[in-house]
UniProtKB/TrEMBL annotation:
SUPFAM superfamilies: Radical SAM enzymes (SSF102114). PANTHER family: UPF0313 PROTEIN YGIQ (PTHR32331:SF0). It comes from Methylobacterium aerolatum. [4Fe-4S] cluster binds at C349, C353, C356. This is Radical SAM protein YgiQ. The lineage of its organism: Bacteria, Pseudomonadati, Pseudomonadota, Alphaproteobacteria, Hyphomicrobiales.
């Protein structure tokens, strides 16, 4: 059977002999009735997701489902099933090829709990914003229910929850090192990172009769297998040799990470495994890795090769309905409302911020869409998305301004093992030109029916200061009163552990921003983000940050406390109190202060909200303990006053039980708080 007429001309990477599907479905079916309307008696593939089903390329299951559909497969969706029994997982019948299981666009534990391990009562990826529609560690739970429903059907894991838990990893919510999610879920295969190529190849090879264990040659795949006899094993301990050539062996090599049974108890071994994993993240030179789990070896193939612009265009040009499934009726899905007028122009990030997991999932090499594909999507938003008023809410991606930036020399790019292209300084081999992005902005503004184009993605200001023309273009045309950026801290100690530039770079950007706003005749403000309790941060660091905030007249309304997400380098610092950015050697590793006690975490958060009277008792007590009682008083250069307003300071900020945080229960749809200028 031919591919449906509505499918785009997919590049050679995605073209395989199609199987059984017909035309593109209006929505991928979520019920037997929808299957019957399409003339299907069964699905080839059933995708199970922890998110509501929104048929839009900002939602992972929609991308994977539509891509598989374009290959000729019949694809159904089971979204947020009741996990109490296997019956909801039988809703579409037994899939002919496999179940694809994902936790959704966020790790389910990050989605359900705050940085203080408190249960969230809302979920931006659920109809009505209702919390509790997915279980903890939902990838594991869903897999178990799929297995109960149809025992012989292969189960393939994907999405960010599986991707960032692909090896033995520290889990903040249970405060222990857990096995690879592939082991805990008892699935057949795990696909990590940008999965488009891998999932197409997996589907076609399974359709051709291959078994999951036969798919060990596909990039971006993890599975349990024996190490082939012709491979040479390279212990992770050897990889910090100053002479990397000495670690190179002729022929095929695989890196042996410390076993799960070792890293769960040995923090130095865990830090070493984390360091090696991040050094083997470049698809140009990464080698396969293996990690023992009990009596089996977990095998990780090298990361996927980044998608070309042609491939990215093919993915984003698929026939999405660009709306939530009709089953949700008029219910609001907050995540959809946030992005329905926005456009993704690129993937990946070469910043390497240690608290962020974008690089571990999407990669360090920027993957770009073409101008034509981006403009076409904006026209689709204009013509098809209800409620469009002429405002594009965002043109960006993981960052706003890395579009078409890349290493000047492909050979250097393929050989590099540095975790960041911009820390401690911007690499001289990096092309930092903003010309392509400026040209794109101008073309987007010219689309008929578009009145305003916003840039809401985070601007990498250390790159922006290299292009005054970009800053002027941004401020003149693409800012709506406030621009959010993320210096994260003011002090060198925590900034080095974050791999972020110094506050001086922020100051230079602010000068350029203010001047551009003045020239444009606008009154605009920068909204800086800061992190409390990040590894490597002392109480004194937070005190100095609070003084900087007060001096610059910033008052943070909601703030972000460091959350140790799976696989992030900063999470390894938090768990091990070792710095994996440097060599990890027995007895010779650099130590890192980790902020784990709840009182100290509350204190660091209180410094960010120095202006809140609820925090003053805790801050006064801490300042006295730090020998800085001189900062208590009414002067502008002092941090908190002597006196307490009546009726304040009696809750948890004072360390007393029973108090309620001032902002508890408020919906939070961003990864960071939004400081408001006084």
């Amino acid at each position: 059977m031919e591919l449906q007429a509505s499918a785009p001309n997919l590049p050679a990477t995605f073209v395989r002999p199609p199987t059984s599907a017909g035309r593109a479905a209006p929505f991928l079916p979520m019920s037997r009735a929808e299957m019957a309307a399409l003339g299907w008696d069964a699905c080839d593939i059933v995708l199970v997701t922890g998110d509501a089903y929104v048929d839009h390329p900002s939602f992972g299951m929609a991308i994977i489902g539509r891509l598989l559909e374009s290959q000729g497969f019949r694809v159904g969706i089971i979204a947020q099933p009741d996990w109490q029994s296997a019956e909801p997982f039988k809703a579409l019948g037994q899939p002919r090829l496999f179940f694809g299981v994902t936790g959704g666009n966020l790790d389910s534990m990050v989605n359900r709990y705050t940085a203080d391990r408190r249960l969230r009562h809302d979920d931006a990826y659920t109809a009505g914003g209702e919390g509790g529609k997915r279980p903890d560690r939902c990838t594991i739970v869903y897999t178990q229910r799929c297995r109960e429903a149809y025992k012989g059907v292969p189960i393939i894991l994907g999405g960010i929850e599986a991707s960032l838990r692909r090896i033995a990893h520290y889990d903040y919510w249970s405060d222990k090192v857990r096995r690879s999610i592939l082991a805990d879920a008892k699935a057949d295969l795990l696909i990590y990172g940008n999965a488009e190529r891998a999932v197409c190849e997996v589907a076609h090879r399974l359709a051709a009769g291959a078994a999951p264990q036969d798919l060990d040659s596909i990039r971006g795949v993890a599975l349990f297998r024996r190490v082939p006899e012709h491979y040479t094993e390279l212990p992770a301990d050897d990889l910090d040799s100053t002479d990397e050539a000495a670690t190179r062996k002729p022929g095929d090599t695989v890196i042996r990470l410390p076993a799960y049974e070792v890293v769960k108890d040995d923090k130095e071994a865990y830090a070493r495994a984390s360091r090696v994993l991040h050094r083997e993240a470049n698809p140009g030179n990464a080698r396969p890795m293996v990690q023992r789990h009990g009596d089996r070896d977990l095998w990780l193939n090298p990361p996927p090769i980044p998608l070309t612009s042609e491939e990215m265009d093919a993915v984003y040009d698929l026939p999405y309905a660009r709306a939530p499934h009709p089953a949700y009726g008029d219910a609001k899905i907050p995540a959809w409302d946030m992005i329905k007028f926005s456009v993704t122009i690129m993937r990946g990030c070469f910043g390497g911020c240690t608290f962020c997991s974008i690089t571990e999932h999407e990669g360090r090499v920027i993957q770009n869409r073409s101008e034509g594909s981006i403009l076409k999507e904006i026209e689709q938003i204009r013509d098809k998305t209800p409620g469009f008023t002429g405002v594009i809410s965002d043109v960006g991606g993981p960052t706003a301004n890395m579009y078409r930036m890349a290493c000047k020399d492909p050979k250097i790019e393929a050989a590099c093992r540095l975790p960041s292209c911009v820390f401690p300084d911007i690499c001289p081999n990096l092309n930092t030109s903003h010309d392509d992005l400026i040209r794109l902005y101008r073309k987007v503004r010219e689309v008929e029916g578009v009145k305003k184009v916003m840039v809401a993605s985070g601007v990498r200001y250390d790159l922006a200061v290299r292009s005054p023309e970009y800053v002027k273009e941004l401020v003149t045309h693409h800012v709506g009163g406030r621009l959010k950026i993320a210096p994260e801290h003011t002090e060198r100690g925590p900034l080095d552990k974050m791999m972020k530039p110094g506050i001086g770079t922020y100051d230079r950007f602010k000068e350029m921003f203010d001047e551009a706003a003045k020239q444009a005749g606008k009154k605009y403000y920068l909204i800086p983000y800061f992190i409390a309790a990040h590894p490597g941060t002392t109480d004194e660091d937070m005190m100095h940050l609070a003084l900087w905030l007060k001096k610059n007249d910033y008052r943070a309304d909601q703030v972000q406390t460091f959350l140790p997400s799976p696989m992030a380098t900063a999470t390894a610092m938090y768990h091990t109190e070792i710095n994996p950015l440097r060599g990890v050697r027995r007895g010779g590793s650099e130590s890192v202060e980790a902020i784990k006690g709840m009182r100290q975490r509350r204190l660091h958060k209180a410094f960010l909200r120095y202006h809140d009277p609820e925090n003053w008792p805790l801050l006064r007590e801490a300042l006295r303990e730090m020998g800085r009682a001189d900062l208590i008083g009414p002067r502008p250069d002092q941090l908190v006053p002597f006196s307490q307003p009546p009726g304040t300071g009696m809750g948890k900020a004072e360390g007393k039980p029973g108090g309620r945080p001032r902002h508890a229960g408020r919906p939070v749809f961003t990864t960071k708080g939004v400081p408001l200028r006084k």
